[in-house]
Design a protein that fits this description.
Number of strands: 12
Number of domains: 2
Strand order of the largest sheet: 2-8-7-6-5-3-4
Oligomer: single chain
Strand content: 5-15%
CATH topology of the largest domain: Aspartate Aminotransferase, domain 2
Shape: globular
Number of helices: 15
Order of helices and strands: HHEHHEHEHEHEHEHEHEHHHEHEEEH
CATH class of the largest domain: Alpha Beta
Structural class: alpha/beta
Distance between the termini: 51 Å
């Protein structure tokens, strides 16, 4: 038996690789400090959990198949959030769709709009589903390098004319995973909209980290640009904003035609999100938002502890304005190592697990990503261990 050629094209999944290495370390009784995966360690807010419990216990009709596109109440809450947060008007009937987590929607968008051989413009480095989804959808990736000298923004002027004319889909992601880069204003999004209109390209904006921000920074939405809804859609997730990673809930909003394609594609593959989870999502969007502020304070404290400590050790890392990640060039002392080699070495010598940059694409080589998702004290422990290595 053999798998499909599309599946064979996929590189090893970065988190599967790190999990294998960590299992091997645990088998040797190594105390692993896991900073490899962006898996929130804080609990979901009580009022969200209470809504789920009440719905499951007292409303058995919600145990039936849900509406595939998302219940009206959920879609209305999503559109109200966009109006309040970004001043973007959306029609809940045609411009919003519930997702089984935003990762699912991103991957299925590629499959819904690409034909075999179609070209997609994909950032590198990127969250893996941005390019894996294209490959599984039968498309081909043209990589847009995210480089430090360009603040990890793609330079659209460097895309060849023949590539731009052939491209059908483009993914963008700010605040960015893995680089933690941000867009300071709408200028970059305006360039994206103009580029997409010129070459008739569908834009998928991944805004999963919209609310994980620090130092007064507020992430803008791609859809705030006039004309953005003509060319694209935007994905958001409850995973990071509300610590609901395991609940698998997200949404996509924007162009009604693209939303329709994605809804049709999904209708053949899933029944949508469990109604009780959608209602918990409504409680999250419309209820108290204190939990976001509190979690951001936790991440910001960890960021400051770890970045300040790393810089004192000579490992130069910049404090990000958003996301739960640090994107760090491999220390000069170990520059000769490939990122996967360095991560294996780091885990073996210190028990600290981070993600290799190559796992996020070709232009991630030379970097590692560290996630701020363990107890504060563990960052002090990690710094003590790294001190021995770096000094």
């Amino acid at each position: 038996m053999d798998c499909s050629d599309k599946l064979k094209k996929l590189p090893p999944y970065v988190f599967a690789v790190m999990n294998k290495l960590m299992r091997e370390a645990w088998a040797k009784n190594i105390d692993v400090i896991d900073l490899s995966m962006g898996n929130p360690d804080q609990p979901t807010a009580k009022h969200i959990v209470d809504r789920l419990v009440d719905t499951v216990q007292n409303h058995p009709n919600t145990h039936r198949y849900p509406q595939a596109k998302g219940m009206p109440k959920f879609r209305q809450a999503v559109c109200q959030y966009y109006k309040k947060r970004f001043d973007v008007d959306l029609d809940p009937n045609t411009e919003a769709l519930a997702l089984v987590g935003s990762k699912e929607g991103v991957g299925h968008l590629a499959a819904a709009v690409l034909n075999p051989g179609d070209l997609a413009l994909v950032p590198s480095p990127a969250y893996p589903v941005h390019y894996n989804g294209v490959i599984l959808g039968g498309g081909e990736c043209y990589l847009m390098p995210l480089l430090a000298e360009n603040n990890f923004l793609p330079d659209l002027t460097k895309i060849p004319e023949d590539v731009a004319r052939k491209a059908k889909l483009m993914f963008i992601n700010y605040p960015n995973n893995p680089t933690a880069a941000v867009v300071e204003d709408l200028k970059f999004y305006e360039e994206v909209v103009a580029f997409a209109k010129k070459y008739d390209i569908i834009v998928g904006s991944d805004l999963a980290y919209a609310e994980i921000t620090y130092n007064g920074y507020k992430a803008p939405s791609f859809l705030q640009v006039p004309g953005a809804k003509d060319v694209g859609v935007e994905f958001q997730s409850f995973s990071k904003t509300y610590n609901m990673a395991g609940w698998r809930l997200g949404f996509v909003v924007g162009n009604p035609q693209i939303i329709g394609y994605l809804e049709k594609f999904k209708s053949y593959l899933d029944y949508g999100v469990f109604t009780a989870i959608q209602l918990a999502g409504v409680a999250a969007l419309t209820g108290p938002q204190d939990s976001i502020t509190e979690v951001n304070k936790i991440y910001e404290k960890r960021r400051d502890i770890f970045v300040d400590g790393l810089n004192k050790l000579g490992w130069k890392v910049t404090k990000p304005k958003a996301t739960m990640y640090l994107w760090a060039a491999i220390p000069d002392k170990f520059k000769q190592m490939k990122s996967i080699e360095f991560c294996e070495f780091l885990l073996r010598e210190t028990g600290v697990a981070v993600s290799p940059g190559i796992g996020f694409g070709q232009y991630g080589e030379g970097y590692v990503r560290m996630a701020l998702v363990t107890h504060d004290n563990r960052f002090h422990d990690a710094l003590l261990r790294l001190r021995k290595l770096l000094k």
